Amino acid sequence: MFNTRVKVKDLLAAEPQSQQVTAMGWVRTFRNNQFIALNDGSTNSNLQVVVALGSHDEAFLKRITPGASLKVTGELVPSLGKGQKSELKAVSLEILGECNPEKYPLQLKNRPSLEYLREIAHLRFRTNTFGAVFRIRHTLAFAVHKFFNERGFVYLHTPIITASDAEGAGEMFRVTTLPFDNPPRNGDGTVDFREDFFGRSSNLTVSGQLEGELGAMAFSEIYTFGPTFRAENSNTARHLAEFWMIEPEMAFHDLEDNMNLAEDFIRYLIGYTMEHNREDLEFLAQRLADEEKQKPQAERSDMGLIEKLEFVVNNRFERITYTEAIDILLQSPAYKKKKFQYEVKWGIDMQSEHERYLVEKHFKKPVIVTGYPKHIKAFYMRQNDDGKTVAAMDILVPGIGEIVGGSQREERLEKLETRMEEMHIPTEEMWWYLDTRRFGAVPHAGFGLGFERMMLFVTGMTNIRDVIAFPRTPKSAEF
Ligand code: ATP
Ligand code: MG
């Protein structure tokens, strides 16, 4: 019977009164044939298991190696050593699974690099760093649902497979059952997708927004939280081919309501994590501080991880227009010294170097940029009266750049249709989307928050591959 097990986290919180308990977990270290550091993933801290000298024979003790799994029954007593309140005095020790030290690829003695740990992602959860990262990921996901549930939003599951390629958010992965070496063809040589599984060309979704809007036109407020797919061939530290996105969509909201909600949401997620994963955050903060020490003075950030998070919770985000952002860039010392690699002028799609200059050097806090030129944004964004810009908003944060992309949506049928035609988006195929503008259209707005980008921000990790369990990136889909 396994159910008598007490989690390490609970054992460490309990008052040690020589009570008999059973713990199970994996060995992190075994010192002097006496002290086992046992971890079961419930907390970053290990339970110290003390094996009385002479209580077990040498051959048995030899099999207790890092990575092996144990069942330990014993007495929870006050610890004599420093560093922990209590320890488990082992009465019976059972090895559940051995772990051959010659073959075990996770040797914690010489701090493995994050790059190496990516190659053994099936085992990296067993490190302190990834233990902390993935407990926080759980908390953040839970907080997402809690936030929206408290506000009466309906969680809508939008489809993973879609036949609409109108979003234009990124390159898509095709979904097909056609034989790729010899697909059926039309007279002109193009592939005949009428023969395909869905009778048309279909893809993995790049965003649930369009379907989300349909839900908002009935429930008033919905959100999606699911995987999205983009065949981003860019191989950056901020892009994945499979990532999770949270997309709320709200009727009766304008751009300002949208910004307020997004800002409250980000603050809430951070606040909730600080409250529930303090130990994990402190561990990651220390880790980041150690890493910063390796950097030259000029590249170090002025704030530690926890300070940064506290700062974001306690300060309003800066709000500027795109036009103001471009002016700031043009006036910047970086621009004058020709430090930017990419061109700066009104109309550009700001590059990450520009976004990061704004948040890291100029404002030193998160910034919401509104009123982007319409030609760099999607067709569904509401057109401003100037004829040049749309009611878009991106939220940029230090260390990452864009974390949220959103807008007020164009609810005026005629304007929307004209824009779609200009952008060569087939209006007939999108009949269902346009119907919402025909049947009781209302002002509405929404945004997309990249869950892994949020994870980067909260954990201080710098590569997006290290905040999702099994990253999918160009040329990489192991595990
Ligand atoms: P970027 O300019 O960084 O490529 P985007 O403009 O393509 O972002 P949106 O289409 O607005 O992004 O998507 C909404 C959010 O989804 C982004 O703000 C970001 O947080 C996240 N996101 C977008 N693409 C990716 C990706 N490939 N991997 C992880 N997160 C992503
Ligand atoms: Mg993109």
Give a description of the structure.
The protein has 479 residues and is of the alpha+beta class. It folds into 2 domains: 102 residues, Beta Barrel (OB fold (Dihydrolipoamide Acetyltransferase, E2P)), CATH 2.40.50; 307 residues, Bira Bifunctional Protein, Domain 2 (BirA Bifunctional Protein, domain 2), CATH 3.30.930. Helices cover 32% and strands 22% of the residues. The protein contains 14 helices and 16 strands. The strands form 3 sheets. Strands 6-10-11-16-15-14-13-12 form an 8-stranded mixed β-sheet, with helices on both faces. A 5-stranded mixed β-barrel has the order 1-2-3-5-4. A hairpin with a 7-residue loop joins β2 and β3. α4 crosses α6. The radius of gyration is 27 Å and the shape is globular. The protein starts with 7 loop residues before the first helix and ends in a 20-residue tail after the last helix. The mean pLDDT is 95. The structure holds adenosine-5'-triphosphate and magnesium ion (MG). The site of adenosine-5'-triphosphate has 16 residues, from β11, β15, β16 and α14.
